[in-house]
Amino acid sequence: MSYSFEFFPARNSAGQLALETASKQLQVWQPGFVSMTYGAGGSSQDVSYAACKNLLKQGYATASHLTCVGADKDTVTKAAQSFVELGVDHFVALRGDSPDGPYQPHPQGYAYANDLVAGLRQWFKGTISVAAYPEVHPQAQSLATDVGFLKQKLDAGADQMITQYCYDTDAILRFAEQLQKAGIQQRLIVGVMPIHDLAAVKRFSAACGASVPKAIEEQFSPYSQTADLHRVAVDIAVEQCQTLADNGIADIHFYTLNRSELTASVLANLEQAKAPLARSA
Fold it and tell me: Poorest-confidence range of 38-47, 193-202, 259-268, 271-280?
């Protein structure tokens, strides 16, 4: 099983301390790469740049998110080149969401993520990841349509896909089957977000088209103490990772939310589960 982590740029000194603490504490797990998010229209470019610089200094293979919403092609290209000059050799290429209403392509910009990937591939030789949606992007008409859009991004030159977090493991497995049927062979990396706060995750999921299955909610319902909620969250994430691995999906991208405790506990439990297998072999 291989791991990677997502962080987001800090906006203040407290956030910076949380990011630095999380990134240092998780480094022991030797992720294949870490990614740093990037605001719509490059609104957080400066802080993303500084955050990527710090991650590179820590020795992480660092991917920068890159969006095309709200910016012309020249602006996007210059932003990408500034990250490359910093030492970034991996982009997570995204359309992005408009901060103030329905998405509208910039008249002189890359209209969609496949266009951004194609533009990057004209000069960028590193790794390009794109987003995938096991529960279907909220603006897609169907799973088949959404997989078609994903294939366009991959055909434009992307190397791999990272899914939105999804707590319905069966939906992820069905999605993987759909990819195979569509002839998509690029690397599938599944996003996993341990549940730090059930109510907050439900609100966020409702806004981005993800779901929290009733069975998962019920696992939390008997508990109110932090330690118990932590244990339940870890158990759920560990079970999902193990089920995915048992079905041949072994690349996991943890959405850390700049926290280390839950992700580290999940990883420790996964490693502990592997230990008896190694001894028996």
Answer: 271-280
Q: Cα-flanking dihedrals φ and ψ of residue 192, to 5°? A: -125, 130
Structure token pair of residue 126: 């590193």
Q: Which of 85, 63, 77 is nearest to 117 (CA)?
A: 77
Q: Which SS3 state, helix, strand or coil, does residue 33 take?
A: strand
Q: What is the mean pLDDT of residues 9-21?
A: 93
Q: What's the rounded Cα separation, in Å, for the pair 123 and 277?
A: 45
Q: Contact at 8 Å (CB) between 161 and 154?
A: yes
Is 20 catalytic? The answer is: no
Q: Tell me how many domains the chain contains.
A: 1
DSSP, res 28:
G
How high does pLDDT run on average in the chain? 92
Give the amino acid at 164.
Q
Catalytic residue among 6, 85, 239, 261: 6
Structure tokens at 233: 């969250």
The two three-digit tokens of residue 270, written as one number: 């996964």
In whole angstroms, give the CA distance from residue 95 to residue 111. Answer: 8
Buried b (16+ CB within 10 A) or exposed e, 52-62: bbbbbeeebbb
- Name residue 87's amino acid: G
pLDDT by residue (tens digit) across 146-186? 999 999 999 999 999 999 999 999 999 999 999 999 999 99
Higher-pLDDT residue of 100, 152: 152
CATH number at residue 140: 3.20.20.220
Output the pTM of the full model. 0.93
User: Could you list the residue range(s) of the whole structural domain that residue 71 is in?
Assistant: 2-280
Which DSSP symbol is given to 211? -
Q: For residue 100, how many other CB atoms are within 10 A of its CB? A: 6
Query: Which stretch of DSSP H or E encloses residue 246?
Result: helix 226-246
R_g (Cα) of the chain, nearest Å: 19
